[in-house]
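As the work plan foresaw, our protein records have gained a structure token line. A representative record is set out beneath this paragraph:
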Amino acid sequence: MWKVMLGFHQIQRQATCEATHLDTIASGGKLSDSHVNAVMHLELELLRWIRNFSAWIDSQKNFVKSMNGWLVLCLRYEPEVTADGIPPYSPGRIGAPPVFVIFNCWSQVLDRVSEKEVLDAMKIFASNLSQLWQPYDMELRQKMIANREMEKLHKMREREAQVINKELGALNRKLAVTSTAQNELPLSQQSEPGSLQSSLRHVFEAMESFSTNLMKAYEDIHARAEEEKSEEVKGSQG
């Protein structure tokens, strides 16, 4: 799965590198109402993508951690106290079956792979989209008094903005927790939003890097699983 996803993200990154006129279009003049609406909708969909992506990764990590924790309870495992303290849990060292070793390895691997760079890149791009539509929203506020159609349009945008702010609030809380856990600065203290071109490219660069890391991690887990199977076969034959 991650190998296939990596291929798609590489294509997406290449496409964003070739979209050289993205910033020119965005800054080329006054946007129409339909363009402003499209930008707001894009930001909203992006924030939903961030939320779903984060929930998906969390679900995978929580599943593996829960399974590994449950398997630990199935062992009569008593931590060995040494002169250097208590060594980390290692089911292979105590002769546990392969499934215990594989899930423990899997859990450790997922702890080392962080999705924070992807979430940060997505949020920066969402922030750049906000900078596009917000000035037009202020202009619309000034016009709507004299035009009922403008008032309807403003109310529609206001509802979209409320949903965007709700999604953004959830994302900020997620990033704050991740930053604290990894002893990192909040996103607002790390970098300033750049151009649409560079921020969109960074999204897919981060996705490419994340997919690469997970693909390699799962290849290592698969290799470890094959080793454990081979050792089990040798043990049964001996």
Residues 2-19+31-76+97-237 form one domain. The mean pLDDT is 76.
